[in-house]
Amino acid sequence: MRSIRAAAVGAVTMSLALAATACGGGSSSGGGSNDSPKTLTYWASNQGASIAIDKKVLQPELDKFEKQTGIKVKLEVVPWSDLLNRILTATTSGQGPDVLNIGNTWSASLQATGALLPWDAKNFDKIGGKDRFVDSALGSTGAEGKDPAAVPLYSMAYALYYNKEIFADAGISKPPATWAELIADGKKIKAKGKSPLGAEGANVSENIHHVFVFAKQHGADFFTADGKPDFTNPKIVDAVKQYVDLMAKDKVIPTGDAEYAQNQSVSDFAKGRQAMLLWQSAAANLKSQGMSEDKYGIAPVPVQSGTPGTGAQTNSMVAGINLAVFKNTDNLDGATKFVKFMTSDAEQKILNTAYSSIPPVKGAQSDAAFNSPSNAVLKQTLATSAAALPQVADESQFETAVGTAVKELFADAAAGRAVTTDSVKAKLEKAQQQMPMK
Amino acid sequence: MTTTTLKEPVRGSSTGAAAPEQRRRPGRIRRIGLPYLLLLPALLLELLVHLVPMVIGIVMSFKELTQFYIRDWGTAPWTGFGNYSVSVDFDAPVGKALLHSFFVTVGFTLLSVGLCWLIGTTAAIYMQDTFRGRGLLRALFLVPYALPVYAAVITWVFMFQHDNGLVNHVLHDQLHLTDKRSFWLIGDNSFWALLITHVWKGWPFAFLIVMAGLQNIPKELYEAAALDGAGMLQQIRRITLPSLRPVNQVLVLVLFLWTFNDFNTPYVLFGKAAPEAADLISVHIYQASFVTWNFGTGSAMSVLLLLFLLVVTGVYLVFTSRGRRTGDV
Amino acid sequence: MSDARVSKSPMAPPSSFLWSRRIFLTLLTGFVLIPVYVMVSSSLKPLADVTGKFRWLPSGLTIRPYIDIWSTVPLAKYFMNSLIVAVSATVCSVVVAVFAAYAVSRYNFRGKRVFTVTVLSTQMFPGILFLLPLFLLYVNIGNATGIALFGSRGGLILTYLTFSLPFSIWMLIGYFDSVPRDLDEAALVDGCGPLGALFRIVVPAAIPGIVAVAVYAFMTAWGEVLFASVMTNDTTRTLAVGLQGYSTLNDVYWNQIMAASLVVSVPVVAGFLLLQRYLVAGLTAGAVK
């Protein structure tokens, strides 16, 4: 024991001085510079069916950009499993890319770190002005009242995908527009031996996306106006319970889905085992799994009653990807030019077509390419009935805490344990207590 | 930063001073300087990769290192023992969750190390004598160890699926042992899924080490025991196991430390949000620091863990080393 | 397989022993083999089959996944990266550990216990906490000296070689202790320097132990996920992380994951088999001092 203590003391004294030097680390340099005007590093997120496909989509566009500006863009497609960690370490060390894709729900959290270039009026002017972008997409670029931390790049929305054949078999003539209809249809579908609806019960982010919409439909928000968590609000409890009840009580989501976290519900749908799927821009995915476009229909996500709209008629989150400039860039002008290029009407058309997403840029969105029936639903949803996830600095903690709570509730439901208002409230209370104290 | 790495030799200060003298007086001074010179690369590496980051980690644990400060964390405010008091406040949810996670990890580690050791040792003893196909089996048993962690664990994920997995197919569809399919990746069973996966990947290492240890036991011991009329089991109890003691001392300790700190298996198996029943402490700390962006609290938890493991290791070494020379541990 | 060196019990084992051995080894083989079988069979199925109900015998076989794995993910590049990183880390780790273990085994000097215990204590710190500080350190070293440690293979090699160092040193001390001191003292008398004695006498005598440590160091570097995910980029990404590329936002290519895992594991398992005889003989001496 003596030697262990000696070792500990030795190790600490040895390295304390060294640590002191290292502690000064982090990035002290403030804004960007233009020290290397000829190159840019770009971290793209994985949008296509594989990283290789992303490169195939993006590289020709980057070459085009190089031809126009003489700036060479070094592309790295970062898998989703690594993206946030990479951004965090880049933020901590100041050593990162010049331009990067971020999930739009991360905007406010990353904004709080101060690592991303704020898009004030001056910066927006350089890329053609803020009003080129669709409002709903802009709502997901950072906390309200602050300059956006990123600009919208791709937009997506949730829709209800349904298998036409199963619907016809079950004698359902039109897709459900309300949850009550969906549950009623579910019974008919079950009678035919198919499972009605899919869900990714163990996927924390998917859970958040859905309970957020349910909360909206119950007229509640997870955060108060001044940004405090309000998870135990009775309306929130009801909202979360309604979602979990789709499995627990209404039995339209099979219990097996409680453990899904790897898009198994999409496979189930593509293979014709499951009648409905709530998903964002699933077309390309379904196609890659061998389901042709005429096999399924696409409709707005159900609401409580009436038709989709704002407020309690919300039926989707604003999903999408934003493009941000890393503040420590050594090619600020080039980075801005690149953002301008990527958000130009022409590029927006090409990229969003390739990824079957909707352009958040007005000029591109009106293009005929985005007028197919399936895109029409998504466009309509984005324009009229989608809401941005809470733009608060603690969004990431919120996703983890509440998303995990819902995952556990699904696990309870799957195990046959009762999901009651009290049990939902208890889980949400625990989630709320895990949020950082202010 | 260059100064950091150069500072270390001060500890073995004779090294630097002795170097020029060595050529002139090859005798005593060389003998004093040489060991330090030989240790130098290892020391520098340990300093750079283990010790300095460890100290930075300890420093971090005293700071309020949330997303607001990570960009320039020199400016993060000091919180004293704030992060620690949050972590050990077992009445509040954060502390309670940590404590729960700690107990899960202790249970998991004890079971996993025990099973890995038991399976490994049993297999090694059974495979001590030659028999047909022994070489083939030995090769086969090494396969789990040779697979990349991700590949091994994702295969188990595949097998543990509720609807389409092999495990439920066998237990439910073929053997009809369960009324309905069980969940393995969520809920309470996830603990067993984690344990099985970990043991599958981990036991071959124990097997290797014990198998090697067995070969050093002199044949004469067995012969003498056999003459005394000792049966197979008695031979194992009286000769094999005592002879394996030194091997086991090292093996069990490293298995314990590695298992306790294992991150890869639960992370690949369950992703970022592990089920409560299988919430291992490494994933828990990962979640506390990387997913919720509070590196201060995460560091404090890690330091507490380090203290715990130091105590356990110390006690373990004191107990197992009794009567043994322990100059090297 | 060299079975000659294995000590054999003098008595013919009783039949109860033989039966229990048969049962135990059969069960164990099943436990080990089933996942391996799942990997092999799944890697030969089309994607649609893998996402369906499990069946022992595939309804149809295809080698498609084995072709697709190379284009879905730049597998060959990742494989090379892993190989470079793991081999370099192994070689360096072994060399460094041999020196350190020799010093501890053969010399008495101040701080010996402190050194061995400190090295041991590094095994107790959860890796997750090293991640950020180490990254910071590498970046700062890079800024100060221009040596790019993060994002490069060099940084990864440095990290992994240190990861395996403590256990390697520990084991090697044991192996070296078991090499009789008279041997290297005789060499010293013959006019070899201490290093001469190390390389001519001690290292050859401990070759099996060194092989064992090398295997361990290789596996440490080969499978590590967490540090590699943050410290590598497109061009330096290793297999352990790269395999995750088969699981994308839209799809999980189970069949390709399995195929790729098998393809990359075959060389490792083959290497294992080649080294096995050394390994088995080697680990002995070290642990039992």
TrEMBL record, chain A:
Q: Does the keyword Signal apply?
A: yes
Task: Read off the Pfam families from this record.
Answer: SBP_bac_1
Q: Which InterPro entries match?
A: Bact_solute-bd_prot1, SBP
**Among its keywords, does the record have Signal?**
yes
Provide this UniProt record's keywords sorted from A to Z: Signal
Cleaved signal peptide residues: 1-19
- Top-level lineage group: Bacteria
Known PANTHER family for this protein? ARABINOSE-BINDING PROTEIN-RELATED, DIACETYLCHITOBIOSE BINDING PROTEIN DASA
Write down what this protein is called: Sugar ABC transporter substrate-binding protein
Which species expresses this protein natively?
A: Streptomyces spinosisporus
Q: What broad taxonomic lineage does this protein's source fall under?
A: Bacteria, Bacillati, Actinomycetota, Actinomycetes, Kitasatosporales
TrEMBL record, chain B:
Q: Where is this region: Disordered?
A: 1-24
* UniProt cross-references to InterPro entries, sorted A to Z: ABC_transporter_permease, MetI-like, MetI-like_sf
User: Per the similarity annotation, which family is this?
Assistant: Belongs to the binding-protein-dependent transport system permease family.
- PROSITE patterns referenced in this protein's UniProt entry, alphabetically: ABC_TM1 (PS50928)
In its UniProt entry, the species of origin is given as Streptomyces spinosisporus
Compartments, record wording: Cell membrane
Name under which the protein is recorded: Sugar ABC transporter permease
Q: Which Pfam families match?
A: BPD_transp_1
Superkingdom is Bacteria
